Amino acid sequence: MLNVDSIRWRTAGVMVVVFWSLGSGGCGERGAAKGKVMGKVVFGGQPVTAGSLLFAPAEGVVSEPATGVIQPDGSFVMTTLAEGDGAAIGKHLVNYNAPPRTGREEWDGYGTPPPEKISPFEGLAPKQSEIEIKPGVNNLTIELVQAPPQPF
User: Fold this and answer.
1) Residue 111: predicted pLDDT
2) Residue-averaged pLDDT of the chain
3) What is the per-residue burial (b if ≥16 Cβ within 10 Å, else e) of 11-28?
4) By CB atoms within 10 Å of each CB, which of 59, 80, 135, 149 scores lowest?
5) Where do the H-state alpha helices sit in 26-91?
6) Does position 10 have pLDDT exceeding 70, yes or no?
7) Mean pLDDT calculated for residue range 131-139
């Protein structure tokens, strides 16, 4: 099971990839060729009903990352610059972000803290960490599995 420190390190790593990707894109690459990307996210054959996806361009792909919010039925549509425009053609690193923990927003710090509500999808990661986006429509199934333990 992931602890809070490993989740923070994993999130920090994703942020580094995102900012590096944004910085390496350059103004002239905003029009990079894209493929439409949509599909479903599943875990154990069942739809994942919350969270988000990030497709970070892999080496050799110069573009901004694409993001997608997972809907209650497990479906998603990826966006780079304009709603639903897809992701740059080429290889991408795939990252899944579970919904954040909730339940302690109103706690004043005194007494026993209320229990946190933890997403049943916390600690999951894409089975396939890299995908290739092709021209046209890409209809994908992203399968999640238990994330391997993170080294400290």
Assistant:
1) 85
2) 83
3) eeebeebbeebeeebeee
4) 59
5) none
6) no
7) 97
